Amino acid sequence: MTTLIPPTAETTAPAASATHADTPRERNPLALLGHQIRYEQLSFWRNPQSMVFTFVLPIVIIGIFGAVFSGSEGQDFFFGLTGMQYYTPVIAAVSVLGACYGQLAIVLAMRRQTGVLKRLHATPLPAWVYFAGLLVHCVVVSIVDVALVFGIGALYGVDLPTHWGAVLLTLVLGAASFCALGVGVASLIKNSEAAPAVVQFIQFPLVFISGSYFPIHAELLNTIAGLLPVKPFNDAMLALFTQDAGFQWRDLAVLAAWGVIGALIAVRSFRWDPRPE
């Protein structure tokens, strides 16, 4: 004959503990953000082709300019600067633009086309965590890129800036603004095949009129370019290098305004699923 034992606290505790252990705990948003940043970093560093071209291209360009302008004096064409004094901060600025605007817009378009964004949107990961992870990743890549360009410029006798707080704020704000614009442009791209063409269609004229390829001396063109995002970033970097200046608040305000515009476009237009053909 089986004796029934009434349930007690001791007999019910393990079951309660098991039930509690099986219930998933809500993840800390900071932990989720750290995980997303780590994921983006691992994805980047495990793609040798993307990694090499991201860092090698600015190094090759600044190295060529160093060989061309080595030992040259200040010239009126470069606003009284040597070629290396002009191009070191400008190439650093272009590398940030490429890492945060061009690559990000293309990557998002590809992830949307392949369904990665749609599957990601179906997970409990908050959208802000995903985009914040992308932003931090792009800032890290930009800092590495800029440090390499600065280092090569120093080898050719270019003095490094002294206001490193202003340098850091300029880099972070520039990267954030270009990331927002990259997400905004990615929102307007219909398919991944068109992404490089759309990105370059916007980027090339901006870089050209902003003095990234060579100094622009036309006053009207400089005025127009000064209202767009690339030239203010170039000017802020040039001032930090060549004038021993601090925070360039006007240029930073223009950058911040364009970052807000890009963010508003992204919020209104961003799609997680592929656009119907």
Automatic annotation (TrEMBL):
Domain ABC transmembrane type-2: 49-273
Superkingdom as given in the UniProt entry: Bacteria
Chain ranges passing through the membrane: 51-70, 90-109, 129-158, 164-189, 201-227, 247-267
Localization of this protein: Cell membrane; Membrane
Keyword field contains Transmembrane: yes
Primary residence: membrane
Pfam families: ABC2_membrane (PF01061)
Amino acid composition bias (Low complexity), ranges on this chain: 1-21
Keywords: Antibiotic resistance, Cell membrane, Membrane, Transmembrane, Transmembrane helix, Transport
Topological category with respect to the lipid bilayer: Multi-pass membrane protein
InterPro entries: ABC-2_transporter, ABC2_TM, ABC2_TM_bact-type, ABC_2_transport
UniProt keyword annotation of Transmembrane present: yes
Start and end residues of each stretch annotated as Disordered: 1-23
Recorded family membership: Belongs to the ABC-2 integral membrane protein family.
Protein name: Transport permease protein
Naturally occurring in which organism (per UniProt): Streptomyces flavochromogenes
